[in-house]
Amino acid sequence: MRNVLVAALVALIVSLVGTPFAIRGFSRRGYGQLIRDDGPTTHHTKRGTPTMGGTVVIAAILVGYFVAHLVFMRGVTASGLLVLALMTGLGIVGFVDDFIKISKQRSLGLTKTAKFVGQAVVAVIFGILATRFVNDHGLAPASTHLSFTRDYAFSFSSVGFVIWAYLMITATSNGVNLTDGLDGLATGTSCMVFGAYVIIAYWQFRNDCVTNAVHNCYSVRDPLDLTIIAAASMGACFGFLWWNAPPAGIFMGDTGALALGGLFAGLAMTSRTELLLIILGGLFVVETLSVIIQVAAFRGFHRRVFRMAPLHHHFELVGWNEITVIVRFWIIAGLAVAFGLGVFYAAFLSP
Predict the structure, then answer these.
(1) pLDDT tens readout for residues 26-37
(2) Which strand (E) or helix (H) includes residue 117?
């Protein structure tokens, strides 16, 4: 447990202390956020706020993870390295997207095709490697079985799993990206979901079928290492939220949003909780669905269901204050996380 605490604390400190340096450095270079003209007019005052703060979050997670291993002389695992590589790969895609926006002085970065290709390459590589590196107990970082609180009998083919991994990774990374439209909204929600995965992965470690074959034990390859990653991620997000809370001094940008979304997918697949992530990340799901509904309604019936999508912008245009939207959406996110943890624990207690 000490290495989990060290990972969280180190990541928190790196993010909390490092973010002000990033704010000053990005400000000097003119790496400011561009605001959409068709969005809420109150957002125009945010133009020029430093972006690409996700670089600090990614760095803090990596430093927290590796310092925790160095302090306790604990070797890294295949599961941990694959999840971190997934996060970093998507972070690079997001960084390129952010950099194009800044250098071209426009609100759109990579084209949809280029972004699709970038996400697909990272997701496919992860999907291929995640079912390899089988340990002495026959466990790979991820399983080809569909999972909720543990693996189901239904199993994908090798190609099917890669496609499933791609769908999960792009859905979660885009979901966080869509939610990252208000100061601290995506960051605060991410803190809660990562906190849930600290509990889930550590519970799996304490009830591992290899070391503690109790009733309803878990067959997960490296649960403790996943706990360390989740703890480092939670700490990094808390540190960044200090500066990203309204009024935000920095935005995470696509760099952070895509990376954190990929991290959620990676943790879900390696902890065998793929469908449970839909509940834990309920706010991200709602935000994504609001965009899908809006686009489908406009293309099919030339009508808008919401004044603007994603959903948080709809409530701003209705007249809610930005902070009111953020806090109420955090409440929704917290309730989703609490319900997801309840479902996970209830499954463990089931006969």
Answers:
(1) 888 877 666 555
(2) helix 112-129
